[in-house]
Amino acid sequence: MSVIPFQGDVTENETVIKFCMNANNLMKGRLDPHMQKITMTALMILVDSRLVKETDETMKILTAKFIKNVIMQKEEDS
Hints:
It is a single chain. By secondary structure, the protein is an all-alpha fold. The chain has one domain. It contains three helices and no strands. Helix 1 crosses helix 3 and helix 2 runs antiparallel to helix 3. The radius of gyration is 12 Å and the shape is globular.
């Protein structure tokens, strides 16, 4: 988790977020120590100009929901 968000192959950030979504579903709280890096990775998927053509709309929506329902909720709980 210390190397995310990826800068070289930015398309791999989508894979990281999918992993985080699954890990969060399996064990709540496990990702908490890495939430800042996960947030930066999720935001990169949404705003990085290098990903405009590579990222489909469904993944953008899932990423936005992950930010809203997991990341922001964690921040509110703190």
